[in-house]
Specification:
Length: about 120
Amino acid sequence: MISFKRLDHVQICIPAGREDEARAFYGGVLGLNEIPKPAALIPNGGLWFQVADIQLHIGTENELNRSKRHPAFEVADLKAAREHLERHGVQLKEEIQIPGQERFSFIDPFGNRVELLEKL
């Protein structure tokens, strides 16, 4: 049996060479704090952000395939998050609601799905 402690990080992907655009969206629009990557990984491209007590790793690859892969982040005020994203022109997608929480998702500029949720 594996005893999991917490989610450490989530990795999503962007096309190679678009780190500045990712920095503008994740650091600027979403307001996440960028953290340094280990020196050994810098040649691979991409960037990392801190999200509460986990990390979001954004890697680069030449071909992106859409799937159901996504990070889901719990937020304190889903309504405020929704309004903020709408002000920045981010298109939201309503999700099937689950008892005990409200949620929605959006697609970042690179085709990655991101879910935000608030526990009730």
